[in-house]
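As a warm-up, study this chain.
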Amino acid sequence: MNSLNPFMGIYAVGFFARMSYALARSPVLPLFALYFGAGPEAIGWVVGISTVTGIFFKLPAGAISDVIGRKKTMLVGLIVFAVMPFTYLWVKNVQLLMVIRFLHGFATAIYGPVSMAVIAEIAGNKKGEMLSWFSSITIIGNLLGAPVGGWVLYSMSKTAALSLGDFQKVYLLSGCAGLISLFCAWRYLKGEETIQKGIGLKSAFSKFLSGIHEVMSDRRVVITSSAEGLQNMTMGALEAFLPIYAVKVVGLNEFQAGLLWGIQVLVTIVSKPIMGKFSDGSGRKGVIATGMVLCAVSFACVPLLKTFYLLLITAAFFGVGEAFVTSSSAALIADLCKKRHFGTAMGTFGTIFDIGHASGPILAGALIAAWDYLYAFWLMAAILLIFVPVFMLGVDVDSPRNNQ
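Now compare it with the structure written out below.
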């Protein structure tokens, strides 16, 4: 790590990586799928399939980093960030788009839990604050990516319908951001890393399995991860269908659809470090539960609204709720786990997180196809609300502490 500021290198890498991923995702991705004639169910799968990758690979990636070191593992994920956006240039149908989205998911599946483990290791008793700063800085990439992608499409469609080339321009921009992230990482990851030397394959595998067992057997870790997973179910649905709802139902343009997602991200960025620091001193459970309620209520309001400004306000409230949950959930898990298993813990957290994030657009797409936006959004909001007492009763530790 850089001796002057151990956080700055990983913050810079995360910023450009997330900007690249956001450019490739919302609002461009669901509109790209719509361009190929996809219906609600197919759009849900296109948006959700990259998160399915994380379900299977975040836990192994985090656990492997506990054994071979964080830097090597991070670099693999960042190579995927840099390379995959350029493969969208060859997309000609929804099926190929879905395959590329699944492969693109390896970027966050590998990089996500490992980068969080690095921050948790060096943050000491400021895990909530520093994890929130890290998340907020990387989310700035999302803040820029969503409206910029929407603006590129909007500027291209002023005189004609969107063409394949219009979408390709956005993905070229995404690839450039990914390459910058990889370049920053190459400089940041050049230093030596202290890892266990001379460990054999059998011993490494044993350490890998023991870490997974120790983390997964902790009920509190699983319930806390599930709380954020369900919150991310609503976020994934919003990410996939808010642009479609805004453009096709309300009649907004693509730039306005991007702004709706952008305001949600902006509010999250501003709120997260404040709430993370607050949870470091005052406990995390109440913050997480409050955020779940805010997300559920604002999410349920979306299909009732038909104007840009009301949707903008609702998206902002959703961003506040997301900040409450995400500022404290990863920090609470780090509080509950031993330091040597931070990678596994964050991998477990990321896996359950991704189950929720992936199921959101898929479930919403199926419900919208079968009924409508109102039924789909209200049912998913109810699921999130029902889990609040489960979380409050199931997690019996609410005070930060250092773990070795």
